[in-house]
Amino acid sequence: MIHPRIDELLEKVDSRYAMVIVAAKRARQINNYHHQLGEGTFADFAPPLVESRSKNYLTMSLEEVAQGKIKYDYRR
Predict the structure, then answer these.
(1) pTM for this structure?
(2) Domain range summary for the chain, segments of one domain joined by +
(3) Gap between the Cα atoms of 10 and 62, Å rounded
């Protein structure tokens, strides 16, 4: 079973395309945050905003979207 479910995610974003872009960018930010921990810097990227059983950054970012922790704005 995939968690969070696609239908839950689509309630928080405009489209599947937006969901993929937002989740991928946030997963990169979480990855960069974890790489900074070893360097002793914490200012550039925010830590994960949810408690997750998964160690996968993309799953963490999708959980953030599902819980409404991530807001995005795109220009047309």
Answers:
(1) 0.80
(2) 6-66
(3) 11
